[in-house]
Amino acid sequence: MIFLQIDKTSQGKYIYQQIYAGIKESILQGKIEVDEKLPSKRVLADRFQVSINSVSNAYGQLLAEGYIYTIERKGYFVENINQFIGQQEKAPPDLPNDLREKHSIKEGWLSLSHMTADISKFPFKKWLKCQNEAIKNHQEELSEITHPQGPYLVRETISRMIALTRGVRCEPEQIIIGGGTQPLIRQLMTLQKESTKVGVENPGYSRIYSLLQSMKFNVSPINLDKKGIDINEVEVGDPNILFITPSHQFPTGIIMPISRRIELLNWAALSNERYIVEDDYDSEFKYGTDNIPSLQSLDRNQRVVYTGTFSKTLLPSLRISYMVLPPELLRTYRHQYSNYIHGSNSLSLFTLHYFIESGEYERHIKRMNLHYETKRKLLMKQLQETFKDDIDIKDVPAGLHFFAHLKTNRGYEEIHERAEKEKLELYSIERFTLNNKYKGAGNGISLVLGFATIKVEDIPEAVGRLRRIIK
Ligand SMILES: Cc1ncc(COP(=O)(O)O)c(C=O)c1O
């Protein structure tokens, strides 16, 4: 028997929704037997003084969700539905507190983060103009899913650009565009055997280190010397894949000299099982020197995987990065990812194509180079004047951050707590040390100081806060 309470004056729910909900509840509570015939639409409509249409819509919804079935010319019947285990009335438990996110508003904060780009100088109008071009000219491509490696046209543009700026030698076919360096590296590593040994720089990019660990690879941090990753340790550790940042070592800033580059390439050339992944994350920014050619451009044996990103030159929120695979890896990639749906937003990618093709990208980088150089010099000057002999700045004229060592008796934990109180976003080498070597060293602290976001006029205040944190 169906019991329905219909409120015709209800503002919230349509009549058909009330009928649907009432019958559904009766079925779930076993008040209507399995295979029991429901009243015809007309009978039910008469009984509750509602329109046949309302009953028809309610039966249609119950049918679509599988609560009832229909037999032609006989009517509607109740489906055989399993009962839920446990108490149905019980509300789902609240999300545990440790899983809740804190949404603190960073009002009054200043940032010396290395992870940002200066949005105040981003040419949004020009970007939107290029976006309009993309919408006008790529209707067909925008209405379908793209090639697993990203649109060919955009890969062509990127390959031309990195040939010019980084000396990277590749065909568009070798480029894989992705929504970030991490997802690309994840894809690359799924092409490797489980037994693959991986070497990473220490200190180094901890996000890649934790990604590789989470993928259960045998990953070893390899120490640096003055030229970058220590070649002797590489030879002893004998990894199959070596992750490095030769253009501007992250985070120390070392620019790898040609002698070490050749040593590493020669090491990789000795086996077809060895690859070097060159993470060229911020090489576009050099102050006072020309761009230094990539490691990939020196490689004669197709042992280098090159990765690049638009996170520093444009905005990290765009999530456009790419990797260049040597042919052998590309073949495995094609085989494994033929069914893959590309994860980037094609509209942004075609926009990027016009942004580069129109010369806007090059102009933007030139402008940003000048702008960042001004801020870099000012921040260094202010730090030097404030900390005098207590600071040792590694002045490498590249990238969007530099490395500095400060004398202090305070440990890293204390420094970070004080930075929180002073509202200064600050990162130290502790975060990038992959084997705890720097923790509690007691002889000062090493900081990774980014200058992309901080406004020129806020630099004195940021350094003042840093002084209060350290002293
Ligand atoms: C060392 C290093 N590699 C790569 C990247 C770029 O990552 P993505 O392309 O995912 O933005 C960054 C960004 O901060 C980085 O610091």
From TrEMBL:
Alphabetized SMART domains for the sequence: HTH_GNTR
Keywords: Aminotransferase, DNA-binding, Pyridoxal phosphate, Transcription, Transcription regulation, Transferase
GO MF, one annotated term: pyridoxal phosphate binding
UniProt cofactor(s): pyridoxal 5'-phosphate
Pfam families, alphabetized: Aminotran_1_2, GntR
Limits of the HTH gntR-type domain: 13-81
PROSITE patterns, alphabetized: HTH_GNTR
PANTHER family associated with the record: HTH-TYPE TRANSCRIPTIONAL REGULATORY PROTEIN GABR
Family indicated by similarity: In the C-terminal section; belongs to the class-I pyridoxal-phosphate-dependent aminotransferase family.
Record-given protein name: GntR family transcriptional regulator / MocR family aminotransferase
Source lineage: Bacteria, Bacillati, Bacillota, Bacilli, Bacillales
